[in-house]
Specification:
The chain has 164 residues and is an alpha/beta fold. 49% of the residues lie in helices and 17% in strands. It contains seven helices and six strands; from the N terminus they run βαααβββαβαβαα.
């Protein structure tokens, strides 16, 4: 599965990362990349994190690999949202709490998850790995009454999010 992370959005939604980011932006980015690298090792997903480079970025979009994570900085004058919009296709999971970006990439066929929700899943996976435990699968709530099947798009989205 391919996961695209709106880097500064996730950092600024996270209590621990935002505190570090306020002290030193580079330290916040580095810590996020470290967490994503651990998560990638555990889950095996292909992860790309996109940061804004619109104020200080170069003339061309910058891309590098750090500990197996693809790190992209948007070019000068361009926001990370625009880069993510170009990358969002069906089968991709985009991590952001930006409502406009979420709406756009969902229309493009990508699945979205909020930054706080993704961070919770990331921390849970890392803690389970450290303790040597398997993550528990959530047991769906069984209700009496008529069974209702979710729409196909919703079932596909739920299946992708379970893999996270």
């Amino acid at each position: 599965m391919r996961v695209i992370v709106d880097g500064y959005n996730l950092i600024r939604q996270s209590p621990s990362l935002s505190q570090l980011d306020r002290q030193d932006m580079a330290a916040g980015r580095h810590r996020l990349i470290e967490h994503l690298a651990q998560y990638q090792r555990i889950k095996g997903h292909q992860i790309t994190v996109v940061f804004d480079g619109w104020e200080l970025g170069g003339l061309a979009q910058g891309q590098e690999r750090v500990r197996g994570i693809s790190v992209i900085f948007s070019r000068k004058g361009e926001r990370a949202d625009e880069v993510i919009k170009r990358m969002a296709t069906q089968g991709v999971v985009v991590v952001t709490s930006d409502r406009d970006l979420r709406d756009f990439v969902e229309r493009a066929g990508a699945t979205t998850i909020g930054s706080e929700d993704f961070e919770s899943r990331l921390e849970l996976a890392i803690m389970a790995d450290l303790k040597g435990l398997e993550e528990e699968e959530e047991d769906p709530v069984r209700c009496k009454g008529l069974a209702r099947r979710l729409p196909k798009a919703r079932r596909r989205r739920e299946a992708q999010l379970r893999k996270l």
